[in-house]
């Protein structure tokens, strides 16, 4: 071996060792041993770092769970980011769709390696929903309103399926941290023991998966998928109200998982007893476990949350501005975050100073009554009255011309005036899928261009909905 090559190898060896050492600081030793200890560095230049992993599953797992941590460890050691390429040990021809565009075996190696790029899109079950690694216990601020829910969530995350808290149900108003906590359970369990199968899904997505599965004759795939998890995190079960069939399916999934000692965690924006149209048998199942609530944060907690968010985003905002925000935005945490995001945008894009005046302006905007959340149901009812059709028809399958028109207008308004996804909008119109919603919205957008009368009518409806509500 020429000495230059030998030197290069040793130095890249030590580079990988250093990266591994940084990684060890971020993740627990078990996860490190599982995922990073077996990796070897194959090649390093100033653009890419090439890693040899035992199998395909590694690339996917690391990309899904440790991408950020790995990238930042690389930056810490090398000073700059690198594009990561994976080689799979002893692989024969990789199966699609993981075949990378560049299939050249690496030049100076004779073992049968193939390159794989982490950016290749993944295949997952059609029912898969990604968990957000941003939501962790570490960045969840604990205060009076949420400490019980937090403690219960931690207990469950520590020993999923092995506490009396099964199911664990967290309820509380919107924007108080339910989604954050439920996903933190998942992230924590994955860190502790990466092979854990954690499924996170909102009840809305569960419902639309279920409807699609029925339509596409894939019910058995659907139920097998949801029954294969170790931890099921189901967000916003209030969405199940009035969805009889979905509730029934969930009831059976619930029973199976529970019997097999799998952990179930649910969230709801209302106490379980107050969930209208939730089947009695589901409610009685829920009472098997532990029900905890989250209350709005007090002033100190609000301030602590703001400080934490500023730290995370490297935002330097004076204390009195933060106090002003904490004192005036009392409803929920999402609002607090929204205010910070607005301030950040102003500071970044208009070079404004983060002053009290700016904070006042932003609090006013957020607090303005016409910003009150408009619901899709408000829009459906109002549109039905304007077009003099029954709101039930808008939610039904009828294709009568005047009803189709009114329905499309309502979809258009729902898209324009609420933050709901196309999937959600479709569900409010008799479970139509999002492509139908897109079609409806496009039709109205086109007609507005051509038809002045319709345009005026819609603008006056928008005004009505925005200001009268
Ligand atoms: P919910 O699901 O109850 O409507 P979320 O979990 O989506 O609320 O919370 C809204 C936002 O506020 C999220 O970005 C979340 O990270 C943040 N948040 C809520 N509670 C806390 C907390 N106690 N500490 C830090 N961030 C929080
Ligand atoms: Mg939520």
User: So what's the overall shape?
Assistant: globular
What's the CATH H-level homologous superfamily of the largest domain? P-loop containing nucleotide triphosphate hydrolases
The beta-strand count equals 9
- Mean pLDDT across the residues is 83
Element order: H for helix, E for strand = HHEEHHEEHEHEHHEHEHEHHHHHHHHHH
Which band does the percent of strand residues land in?
A: 5-15%
- The CATH class of the largest domain is Alpha Beta
In the CATH scheme, what's the topology name of the largest domain? Rossmann fold
Nearest-angstrom radius of gyration?
26 Å
How many distinct helices?
20
The end-to-end distance, rounded to whole angstroms, is 78 Å
What is the strand arrangement across the widest sheet?
A: 6-7-8-5-9
What compounds are bound to the protein? adenosine-5'-diphosphate, magnesium ion
